[in-house]
Queue: 3 jobs
Job 1
Amino acid sequence: MTTTRSDFVSAIRAQDSFLLLTHRRPDGDTLGSAAALCRGLRALGKQASILHNPDAIEKYSPFLQGLTVPQAPEGAVLLAVDIASESLLPDNARPLAGKIQLCIDHHGSNTGYAGLSWVQPECAACGELVIDLLEQLGVPISAAMASALYLALSTDTGCFRFSNTTPNTLRRAAQMQEAGAETFAINQQFFSIKSLARLRLETMLGERLEVLAGGRIAVCSLTPELMRVCGATDADIEDLANFPRQIEGVAAAVYIRVLPSGEAKISLRTDPGIDASRICAHLGGGGHAAAAGAAVPEGLEAARAKILDAIALETGLA
Amino acid sequence: MTTTRSDFVSAIRAQDSFLLLTHRRPDGDTLGSAAALCRGLRALGKQASILHNPDAIEKYSPFLQGLTVPQAPEGAVLLAVDIASESLLPDNARPLAGKIQLCIDHHGSNTGYAGLSWVQPECAACGELVIDLLEQLGVPISAAMASALYLALSTDTGCFRFSNTTPNTLRRAAQMQEAGAETFAINQQFFSIKSLARLRLETMLGERLEVLAGGRIAVCSLTPELMRVCGATDADIEDLANFPRQIEGVAAAVYIRVLPSGEAKISLRTDPGIDASRICAHLGGGGHAAAAGAAVPEGLEAARAKILDAIALETGLA
């Protein structure tokens, strides 16, 4: 059942022990929001911890230090943070599906799986709701909470660049900076800085970039050899599928990642008016209108030929 | 002479006709601040225009539409916007040096060349001062002013990523969004999308990047030849000085641009704790603690050697 802020605050006040859940392939919003809320609940004298998320990558560890537990403590109320549906629980939280009492979320697509859900889709980040909640609970926001919340706000807005950024997001960011958030360090680590391996990868992708159809289509590919040459790990290729998307005038951006098995995974990003999911359906794939994908077991060259054929078929661009 | 906000406001009120000046190689802060202030002065019923800046690249044109004039109107008070020193005037404004009555600026290095200067170095962008000034003057901020001011705020902070971003910057950005600034379109155009020529330049810079001092110093350089090979214009190299700054672990990022004349222009960006302006002072340059510059007439190799020497002298990094 979805509820109002004041009823959600009352529900939190009424309980003494919480286990916070985050979503699979967790980002700075689910982890930062959970970290700040966990600290806030502890500041109120409650028991609170976050269920260890096996998918969380190393760079989030400092925010979670001292907050995570390997399994659900006896009798803890399950509180989902930034999780739109139970299908998004990480593997180790799957057994908790159907038992989640509370949910704080900003996804309009929230399925209402929790006993009581406070969902505010107008918020760019779940972190905005957590700040609001902490204020309602009368918890002073510590520097550690502020940093976690700034991470949440900045992550879901691409550091305030995306169209979901609102005046409230920016003001909350200002407030977190005043509360001691290490804003510059977070901006640097998450939005400005890339590893030398990542820069080398981008340089090599740039060298190999194909621009077709008078600049409307861009194609680039990442192979295991390229990763080896650049000394890159999985952490270095996060979001690399957006690389060909950043070029002015490109309406269909194709990124092909060749796996060590030889299989090619295509990511297609398109402008409004070009349905990426229809194009990828020609290759047995799917997704959203603006971002879709397909797998081609025959490898890179076959993947390139097939996706360009499908783009030509659907858009006339060739 | 530097002055207080209230005396500066009085000086503006006392005059009826203004010509606004912007700095050479103008960015979104000098142009956006001047555009908003020009509109604000006109809203007060005053005569105001901006001296055409021959260096201004195409993408700024929409912000300047209807505001610029080719030469100084008779009797107009000269008002410098975001110009730290008269040496930064564009060529067509050089004859006005020594005659500038008013200056609004946020550079701590402002030389005090104007009759009356209002300088607030704690502001990340000159745009913050202009918003403050417009409020003091009682001018309602229109959507066009808000977009120009959002451009100013976002430009000088790398879209709120740089260390100069303060809670005030973020709150002013929120306020400009509420006043009708086209924040998302500006973010897209100025911070998300790049031209193919720009991508090619970055690729070649990546190929030629030097990483020194165990990864603490990065050096890259842009020559007229490289620009020619990439089909790049001045519009494609804006902010390219930040390119070496993005690498993990780099504390002093050096970017050297060689002009067609052979002169080398150094941009130095540094981590907190390393004063870029002190380092550049060794080469007769200056700027801010985190970003400074210097010119070396002898060219690329001399510039590279001198700036590395100055960094070693000030930081011990070598």
Job 2
Amino acid sequence: MTQPPRFMPVVLWIPSFEGMTRRLLNSLDRQADKQPSNGILPVWVKITALMQNFAVLMLNCPDQKGIVAVVTEFISRNGGNILSLEQHVDPQANEFFMRVQWDLTDFVIPKEKISDYFGTLIGARLHMRWQLYFANERLRMALFVSKPAHCLYDILGRWHAGEWKIDIPFIVSNHLDHQEVAQRFGIPFHHFSMNAENRQDQEQKQIALLQQHHIDFVVLARYMMIIGRPFVEAFSGRIINIHHAFLPAFIGAKPYHRAYERGVKLVGATAHYVTEALDEGPIIEQDVVRVSHRDSVEELTRRGGDVEKLVLSRAIRRHIERKTLVFQNRVMVFE
Amino acid sequence: MTQPPRFMPVVLWIPSFEGMTRRLLNSLDRQADKQPSNGILPVWVKITALMQNFAVLMLNCPDQKGIVAVVTEFISRNGGNILSLEQHVDPQANEFFMRVQWDLTDFVIPKEKISDYFGTLIGARLHMRWQLYFANERLRMALFVSKPAHCLYDILGRWHAGEWKIDIPFIVSNHLDHQEVAQRFGIPFHHFSMNAENRQDQEQKQIALLQQHHIDFVVLARYMMIIGRPFVEAFSGRIINIHHAFLPAFIGAKPYHRAYERGVKLVGATAHYVTEALDEGPIIEQDVVRVSHRDSVEELTRRGGDVEKLVLSRAIRRHIERKTLVFQNRVMVFE
Amino acid sequence: MTQPPRFMPVVLWIPSFEGMTRRLLNSLDRQADKQPSNGILPVWVKITALMQNFAVLMLNCPDQKGIVAVVTEFISRNGGNILSLEQHVDPQANEFFMRVQWDLTDFVIPKEKISDYFGTLIGARLHMRWQLYFANERLRMALFVSKPAHCLYDILGRWHAGEWKIDIPFIVSNHLDHQEVAQRFGIPFHHFSMNAENRQDQEQKQIALLQQHHIDFVVLARYMMIIGRPFVEAFSGRIINIHHAFLPAFIGAKPYHRAYERGVKLVGATAHYVTEALDEGPIIEQDVVRVSHRDSVEELTRRGGDVEKLVLSRAIRRHIERKTLVFQNRVMVFE
Amino acid sequence: MTQPPRFMPVVLWIPSFEGMTRRLLNSLDRQADKQPSNGILPVWVKITALMQNFAVLMLNCPDQKGIVAVVTEFISRNGGNILSLEQHVDPQANEFFMRVQWDLTDFVIPKEKISDYFGTLIGARLHMRWQLYFANERLRMALFVSKPAHCLYDILGRWHAGEWKIDIPFIVSNHLDHQEVAQRFGIPFHHFSMNAENRQDQEQKQIALLQQHHIDFVVLARYMMIIGRPFVEAFSGRIINIHHAFLPAFIGAKPYHRAYERGVKLVGATAHYVTEALDEGPIIEQDVVRVSHRDSVEELTRRGGDVEKLVLSRAIRRHIERKTLVFQNRVMVFE
């Protein structure tokens, strides 16, 4: 009897990037149970291969008969195995939306040509707008923050614990308060002092910095400056802000003060993509927490802060997982 | 050995009006366990006595030292047993608030003179505004409704099941749709057709009807007419409305349509006292429910409807229990 | 110019049975806006036609490549228009699940032959278990209740307001308390007094009654009797119960008493399909509400009651909409 | 005209330790608005004085007439100003509970003698058990953690941002994984490798370490070792654990795996004081989050993790604020 190859046990860092991944890990777990003497190498190889072989296609087009069948047949006929599929129709706009994810292992079309083939065979004919992603892409996120630090700490904690598959090349702030925190986490810190005179210039420098570092998306983690038009346009649909109120209630400044004065019984937070109209961008996620007449403005701020960091982190996760699709100022958030 | 008096077992309808009541019932339960052969009469007598002997005092005044001690001493020195006490200070307004409830069984001041004594000895001196209630008062509620029926059904179900200690002398509507429902529950139904010409006259008749039946408070259970100034003034602080949105978001008409267009991820409802400014009255209770891009306006309306009826019923309960105190457009809701 | 046909305006009762229906209604609404002078008849005809032309297919089978494509192609190639589709893979069981809904208007396979064709062409080959429903089927629900009435009132209110597309041929109870309520709503009431001796006989009579009236599913709306094995088997997967606790916490009797003693900070409710093992059946829906040390057992019961009725009604809705699929004691609840 | 004293503006770190503090800060804010030219020193002095002059008294005793009046009179007559008061009666145990907080500025009894006087004059006579705290006490918290890091990050973030008024003299772990995190935050890290043989010895060393550093309370932030009896007794009522389930559901190991298998629709977390009976200690705080059949065990773990860290942090806050009182395995959590 030949001995199976033996290796040191290896702890694998497996990003929970995809529902897909979980599916694979689960099957691996079962396999491991059955073949405990089999060493760890084959598992490792298989995961590596699979991790680099998922595709995500998000599309929308005018609704008509047979779209699901046409797209799934395209994938299936070319050797792709559909891992998850979600579709939606907006009846008022008569628009069809779909997110489909498939395993590329046996897919006969090379990755770099999928978009071309899909466009020629299906996309153009059905007047589709589509985006294609691959699972092994690691997004680069820039973090903007002013003085309140709770969202910053939550994001850094999750990032440091490996909860998200992203890089954070730097932190930007209009204050120096959190320079030390950035240093503790080993992340470069860029300070841009902002005032009425230098704002446009400083923003131009920020845009240049983001582009130079190939930043994929920007998170405003309680960054208290309004983003100018050129910045918004340069990163359209890729800037996530957290507003400390349940929008559209309390648009603008000092929402907790106004919530206190209005005597509301819940305070909330809203994560949204930034557009030119302040606090009007498409909403990704919202949540609330109960308050009472006993709670001062300071207490509303503290309770709201817990909601803000949760809501922002959920929105970031959805964005990283390529599960958000914006249409007419509304965000489809796929499961 | 003398035989204890024996009576037929009696099922008592005990309103859950007060935390106090629960306390008594619990002690009675324990007593009943110990003396099962003792008949039911002593219990009945004791409950009756106690039920008619609670007082609730709600007050507010400029904050200063020693208010709690002065009030509790007044109650205690005169033989009252404090059953619950809650106080609150609004630091911005520098105003003190208090709700105290005590057992009148051994209280030496007669019920009808308590307010007079309290005012002379304490209230006037400390510039208090106060309200005194007694536990055996049964409130009379008028129910206004238009077409949506979910709040109406919820209220009638709770009332019919004895959940609230109130009378509903009649239902008012500007439509005839729910006349049959009123009949099924044996409640008189008054129809007031309303249009631009007759509105003021009709409201005068409504006010007269309410006053003639000694109505204590009015519930607008999705009543889609704006209440005029004379009506609001006649029942100031005694009209509860349910707005089908999380105020101050979506003030005014068609909130679910606007929530859909804004792409919010939660819809809510707000119960508030009616003031002249539409949807601006002091908020008693709010809650929300999660929705997604998959939900049409119709589905938002349905999910929101479940929240509306819950929120309105919670607000009614708080009002009946004398746990709401309005100050500067904010509602203190005592526990 | 010929005048379009004119009819009296007709109020249509349109069940909100399907996301599909909403989609159609929305398009109809828009059409109506454009042609207000056109009378109501064409709309009516169109709705009737469409309402009878939806099919829902729910299936599960061992997971493998290409299932989605095969099923959607079957529908699409035969003239069906897919209205919604949701799929799921249980990686631990390696099982594939799918719910797909399509418009039958131009579908070339007759309704009565769809199941046969699907089985021959796809189902048998892929080892599927499947269920096929049509949108115009109106389910018949039997309502069982004991003494607590809040769920009963909530269900009758929703049914009476037309929220659900069901018939309630009768109410069954082991007590006489709610006979009058049944009469108020015009529903026959069957009383079965139950004790240790007659229980098996009475249950046989209940089963006969249910079968005689062609009951599709049974709702135990706080029915405090344990259902025997023959009953469960006769209506397997078609009996919904509401348990007044957040299962699996507080299985069995007096959950609110035990929740009080344990000092929990939330109480909840669980709607589940009934199986032979008490309180162990597959869970359809759960929710909770916050409580505190101030709340007595009575107050926990009251707050929990609000959650019970909401949770049960949500579960009933999901069942009526054919959105629940049981597999290995877990319920898939499709969106 | 004499010039008011001028100082450099000073940013004050004001812990939100008490409802009291908020009240004072609010009045200071208003004062600052009125006297902007007045410098910052008087404010500083006043705050310092006040911060050191609050007392919190928590007590319980058999219920009887007049307790509130006796206690409040004791405070008031001796020059204390009551800042907040909450009382509660457990009717089943016939026990009275109270938390009262007062300003010591003009209190005539010296701090170190308050407990003595209160005991002699009131406590002993009414058979009270009581605890007296002063607002300027800064608690010392020991942090125990194993491998999952999300609670650790959340606690360190809040501590570093100054949200809590505590010291964290060291972190203890049975693993080395988080040594680097401790270093980043500048906190000493003590590693105790634990196995069946050395466990009792290691725990003795842990107890010695805690006592040597005058630790006030211990937080088990996902510390996966069972605490032995001597440890529990040495810090009775002062060890807070987070259990990753909604207790009493899923007591013991692997709760998320079991939640997945049971098919629950919500997962939760429970913060409780540690007693000898595993997962049976008195509950401080609980919360839940919605899950579905689509969520794998890994996803339940991730979603649950967000709830765990929130619930644990809320419990810690309540403990620090001296708002928790344990009686018969239930925790009163005052507002």
Job 3
Amino acid sequence: MRYAYLGPQGTFTEAALRSLPDAAGAEQLPYATVPAALDALRRDEVDAAVVALENSVEGSVPTTLDELAMGDPLQIVSEIHLPVSFALLVRPGTGFADVKTVASHPHAQPQCRRWLAEHVPDAEWRAATSNAEAAQHVADGHYDAALAGSFAAARYGLEVLAEDIHDVADAVTRFVELRRPCAPPAPTGTDRTTVAAFIGEDHPGALLEILNEFAIRGINLTLIQSRPTGAGLGSYLFWMDFEGHVEDARVGEALMGLRRVVADVRFLGSYSRADQVRPEIRRGTHDADFTEAAAWLTAIRQGHPEP
Amino acid sequence: MRYAYLGPQGTFTEAALRSLPDAAGAEQLPYATVPAALDALRRDEVDAAVVALENSVEGSVPTTLDELAMGDPLQIVSEIHLPVSFALLVRPGTGFADVKTVASHPHAQPQCRRWLAEHVPDAEWRAATSNAEAAQHVADGHYDAALAGSFAAARYGLEVLAEDIHDVADAVTRFVELRRPCAPPAPTGTDRTTVAAFIGEDHPGALLEILNEFAIRGINLTLIQSRPTGAGLGSYLFWMDFEGHVEDARVGEALMGLRRVVADVRFLGSYSRADQVRPEIRRGTHDADFTEAAAWLTAIRQGHPEP
Amino acid sequence: MRYAYLGPQGTFTEAALRSLPDAAGAEQLPYATVPAALDALRRDEVDAAVVALENSVEGSVPTTLDELAMGDPLQIVSEIHLPVSFALLVRPGTGFADVKTVASHPHAQPQCRRWLAEHVPDAEWRAATSNAEAAQHVADGHYDAALAGSFAAARYGLEVLAEDIHDVADAVTRFVELRRPCAPPAPTGTDRTTVAAFIGEDHPGALLEILNEFAIRGINLTLIQSRPTGAGLGSYLFWMDFEGHVEDARVGEALMGLRRVVADVRFLGSYSRADQVRPEIRRGTHDADFTEAAAWLTAIRQGHPEP
Amino acid sequence: MRYAYLGPQGTFTEAALRSLPDAAGAEQLPYATVPAALDALRRDEVDAAVVALENSVEGSVPTTLDELAMGDPLQIVSEIHLPVSFALLVRPGTGFADVKTVASHPHAQPQCRRWLAEHVPDAEWRAATSNAEAAQHVADGHYDAALAGSFAAARYGLEVLAEDIHDVADAVTRFVELRRPCAPPAPTGTDRTTVAAFIGEDHPGALLEILNEFAIRGINLTLIQSRPTGAGLGSYLFWMDFEGHVEDARVGEALMGLRRVVADVRFLGSYSRADQVRPEIRRGTHDADFTEAAAWLTAIRQGHPEP
């Protein structure tokens, strides 16, 4: 197995990749941008790719969404939730008093603002392209400290001076493992499905129509994002994550409904939820209910309404 | 063929029955009440029955709805629209000045109120069980005139003294032809389907849920009536007529949805509309759209999203 | 006080009228038809009128709905629920073996069918314009027994041979007390409101639009009936009863919404429910929630979003 | 006037700021991160701030949304649409053949991928914290070329070697001008309103409930994004942009409805749309319709239903 990921080494994305069971012993190839990692997968240079999807400290969310929705098709086969936990990395021997400069990706600094103001109030912040690059700069002696995951310390020969220094507890970044289009993994009972629905013309009320397809079948959405498609004003797509698996009858019928009402829909995968949340299946929407209803319809069409 | 109908002879219901192509030469049996006519059909004493469903001058609507929704199953196979047109029937030789009493079903009198006040202002009104019975009373010499359809004149040896005397133009009564449960007549493109949906417990929002099953598939309702089922407070049924035929994909899926969300549903027939109104089929709800969406679902479930 | 009601004396409607606290000692005037009773009220000949609205054994429902929705305006100020309970009335001295004919309104016979088949299997049924008229016919010696409320016995010098002979238990007829348009009675906390909403042109989806106005404010419908208006095909009205009082903020806003989305709406009254059912008021729809939201809106319009 | 913006000088954000009429002659202060720019406004160090909201090549969107929705309140008073147009900036005298390295923000490189592969196929890409920083690196001689807006050339003493080199035409970035909370600018007829709605507990169906508040009043959404609030699983907010101004009656009532149904809602501003699109106002939702409906409600509450 060869995995592509958004590098460089030492990023949260690499940590997410390393948490995958199949990643142990696999080849792990860092790419400089999300599109580069995905193209490597599309060109068959790797077998899978791991990129951030939601709430990333590395800021790659809109790029990932747009690439998956509009680039050559790929498919999500699993997801990884990684707690956001920043550490202050320094060269061995550096103490708090020595920290005059702190480097990080611009998205990391605001997340540690309060801690920095309290513990290294006089340190100046310096921007880096990624937190891993910031760690490299510290290792190179350009800056005194870097904000990064503690897992990055060993990779760059640095030490953890302080841990868990981010201001908001319980932040989580969501990553996805991508493959080339394939049959989805088998349902687990705690599945999520992702689609991108395209609204071709200015179609007010399209969102309500779409949501109704899910609502009448008792399917909860867990994420929704509207994005312009770049094909002119009023041309939108909705990225939607929802509970259930494409093999579930209620999900299948909702997807067919979606297919019928929007200009286009791209299936982006059914996969086990990282948080293992089991959906509450509403009365009348179990697979057995769909089977029973289909049998009843057949009976009345044939003139035998009461079996 | 033997037909049951709500009698006696000379009612609008008999006129409706006579308008059926198959009724010519068939045996036509009047029954005193709607339940009696339907029971005759259930017991195989007749092959079909004709009763009023909507807006009847004979007042049988709630009885018909409740009998069809809750009695032993029967099925609508065709409908008849009959313009409501009252005539003033008298014994031969009677003139306006001779009319001192006018008899009719209590529902007929209000529909001719203004005309009666203008043309026979001094006549007193007398109630009869049906307009046909009123005609019989006139023939028997008990009253001077009867409000009834002009077709009843010949039957009772009466004359039409005035025609089209009802106050509201364009009123129509809707009758249905019933059979024992059977395969529905083939779709004509201008079909109507009737169901009764039962709401078992106090289920606020049930109606909205039901309507959404139709709305998301672009199916228009043409009649809706809530009726208590007699099984306790909060136990309701909705009688619903809507556009389309049970063979239509959009109707089939809506019916299955209905079946899944309500306590029970009874299919009451798909049949050609008397008014020949062709439904506008919304984008994405043609049979071909359902077929295409099902093929797409199969493809993505098998891992071939782009055929 | 003078009350009009659908006569003759001895009907369920008279029994409903007599159950009103204000009816004791008031003048009670029977009218031959529902429109006649309502016109008497419109012309100021009486101060109030009592007519059946729902599930009547006397069959007057469609007439009542249409008269109130489309005739000169009247307003519901209270409602009465009367259990449907039939008795077999006979002349004193008549025994079961003597009953060869049973008379009633055509709607009453089906409701007692099973009992009649069991207890007087050989008796023939005769139609009457009302159950009270049937009782009069029995008193006059034309028939042997009448189906009617037991309260009618005394009025016609008859005896109750058997009581509670209707087949379905717990049937209830709903009557309403009408006045000329007036300020509604004060809210009681267990109120119902009635309106007629007119759909002017063929406006598919109108019903869903209407129901949404109620649903988003957590208001449950207790009755809905579509009725043709007589103004041409596709011109409908919806008669709707729902929980709450016009003085309630959620009801007021829903009514304004209704007013805005339909061709016309007629307010038919807010009044205490006969069954005293207290509505569950959904989170966010109490009067206080509307007041708070209005204060917030004022604040943000003025530039003081956080008070 | 003092303006904060996301720096450094030469970014698209600075170009957006410069397009504001009031910016001419105003003090313009670059900040290293979006939170830093917004905090400067909150602390009164500046009078306004300009940041990217949507589809930014600088990748700041999630940060901006979260800061505005959850940080100390600020308010949008205008928006700016800037066409995305990249140029290749070089030191004077550099030709295509001399370009061995190209630097840019990681989000810029994918947008120019095809052009780069065609015109400078052998150049290696280098990441920078911003395109402006990349330009500075070129000016310093570290790299040969930078991807940036052509407006950045003069600022860094560079030349435009090629213009309009991005692969997707018509891409637009949307920026907003922020102030401390204030009375919104007067309606223009082509307004947009922005809110953040908080869903406190796991409340499936919340989104549908919210959308219905807008839909029944004919208000179209132009952007929707769900975002976790960081307050635990299932705690979400919806960032929503929609047509209309808080002073419009339909918008006011929808906002009050939103206020009542969600855990909390933050008003983020009503302001003129940069694209000047005028909304279609649905039948029944003009200000005059709300005024008429309110007058009607008052009349029926007082007992004068027909004025």
